[in-house]
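Data deposition worksheet. Section B asks for the primary sequence of the deposited chain exactly as it was used as input, without tags or linkers unless they were present during the calculation. Section C holds the resulting structure in token form. Section D is free text for depositor observations; keep each observation to a single sentence. Incomplete worksheets are returned to the depositor.
Section A, Depositor: J.P.
Section B:
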Amino acid sequence: HKVVADEIGILSTENRVYLTNAKMSPDVLSENFKKLPITAFANIPSVEFTGANIRGIFNEGNFAVNTITFSNPKIKFMFQPDLKPKTDSIQKPQFSLKGFAAFTSNQIFIKNGSLELCNYKNLKSKTFGTTTVDLTISNFKVENDQKLFKTKYDNCSFTLKNSQFDFPDKIHKASIGKTFYQSSNGILKITDF
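Section C:
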């Protein structure tokens, strides 16, 4: 995957980093793309890192922030149903920044996101699910463990609204008004099903 943005701001006096009009997409020409059963696209109008320890990344290789807020992202997960995961032939994600040791955030927020799920077959994309999403992750950490990602977090909660799903039989559909999940206590609430 590659990430581009129209603007990246680093305001060290405010301990703040921001991106505007960020986009993430897979490298469809990559050999790994043809082997991945799932991939992601994202358009994010605004990303803001607050309480960012900008010096830490340069001095110790650690980038710590208080919060990260993704505002109004449009995220698309694309499944290639004919592909089965081949973990032995897929390269695991690696840190590409020399000297980078860890990234931590007290809170990560996705606010007013939209999520689209689709299948990709014969060079065509077919949407089978859509929803809006709000998400919070607490005490998130990514560490460089011998150039591989090692992640952990304390709690994750999300709310999905206006979820629509088409079943593979092309006859049945499902609508869910609201879904709430919180990992710390295992609460799952579904309303308007």
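Section D:
The longest helix spans residues 54-59.
The CA atoms of residues 94 and 148 lie 5 Å apart.
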